[in-house]
Design a protein that fits this description.
The model has no long low-confidence stretch (mean pLDDT 80). It is elongated, with a radius of gyration of 14 Å. Strands 3-2-5-6 form a 4-stranded antiparallel sheet, with no helix packed on it. It is built from no helices and 6 strands. By secondary structure, the protein is mainly beta.
Amino acid sequence: MAVTLHLQADRTGNADYTRFLQLYDPVLGMAAQADGVPVDGINPTWSWVDGEEIVDTVTLTIARRRSRRLHALHRLLRPRRRRTRPLFSTGRRAPPDNWLPLTQLTVR
């Protein structure tokens, strides 16, 4: 399954971040995940500029599960940092553990 993330920088980047994209089953746990640098490292987060739109396509392989309702979650973290400030704006408060819920989907 391919997932295309559309991100927009709201300030100029200053550090390298790793992308975590997960499909999560609330009952059975992790169904798929893809961790790595955004855009395969071609456009590192430290080079992002205010207002830039970033398109990052990620391929996920979904594990066979009985449940087919999955939650797509996304976050960016700096490697080897215990704390990080929220990177996502949801219009309200930062999501728990800096995870941004993207959507729910049903796999058939």
